[in-house]
Write a structure and sequence with these properties.
The protein is of the alpha/beta class and 231 residues long. It contains eight helices and nine strands. Helix 1 links the parallel strand 1 and strand 2. The model has no long low-confidence stretch (mean pLDDT 91).
């Protein structure tokens, strides 16, 4: 099951659902998690669910951040019996055609990360400041947490069901991109095998970025907090 959190993604949602349908197996499903988008994304999601058997919609009352949206999506995916849960952006920053490669890698791993910072990976259409923030954030988390994972802030991931059942979703409280760091860190601490698969991340062409100063600041304090909790 692919979890797609949405907030004002009306320009991208239908095209993303169509693209995912072309690459998912017959039993694959798409869970749209909409945070009461004022642009009508939720209504589009409901129409798609009425028209298609492979689309499910989870409506949330308000925008609370990436982390809470994904956590609610993970819980619903588990309730619906998903064995593999995929998280990815709805704005085509993550290429739907990469999904089969990540799913295949999950045959020998518990968590698969679509990585920009391993050989073969990269970014496209990014300015210098955006590259520095992203790469610096991953290095910061990598050093403080003592991990070998190179892309800790990436949001294109596959979790096996057992991982999400083990890492205590209720204990995760990160709101922004620190959520990605925390999820991977908890999986590694629980003894699960995490692998990185190279992807190219392309900046969105339609709609606005969800990056903000508060998201960056949360990651700055959350990473040492995770390390202290381990001690």
């Amino acid at each position: 099951m692919v979890c797609l959190p949405t907030y004002n993604e009306r320009e991208n949602l239908e095209a993303m659902v169509s693209a995912l349908a072309d690459v998912l197996p017959d039993d694959g499903r798409i869970l749209v998690i909409d945070d009461n988008s004022p642009d009508g994304t939720g209504r589009i999601a409901d129409r798609l669910a009425d028209e298609r058997d492979d689309v499910v919609v989870l409506h949330r009352p308000r925008k609370e951040g990436l982390g809470p949206a994904y956590l609610d999506g993970f819980r619903r995916a588990l309730e619906l019996g998903a064995d593999l849960v995929i998280e990815m952006d709805c704005d085509f920053s993550h290429d739907p055609n990469d999904v089969p490669r990540l799913v295949a890698a999950a045959e020998d791993a518990d968590v698969v990360l679509g990585s920009r910072y391993v050989p073969g990976g990269g970014t496209r259409n990014w300015g210098l400041v955006r590259r520095l923030i992203s790469r610096g954030g991953s290095l910061y988390a990598q050093i403080l947490l003592g991990l070998r994972i190179r892309d800790l802030t990436g949001g294109f991931k596959v979790y096996r069901r057992v991982v999400l059942e083990t890492i205590d979703l209720d204990a995760i409280d990160s709101k922004g991109y620190a959520f990605q760091i925390e999820g991977t860190y908890r999986a590694l601490r629980a003894g699960f095998r995490v692998v990185e698969v190279p992807i190219v991340f392309a900046d969105r062409e339609v709609g606005g970025s969800k990056m903000s100063r508060s998201i960056v600041l949360e990651a700055i304090w959350k990473v040492p907090a995770l390390r202290l909790s381990r001690l």
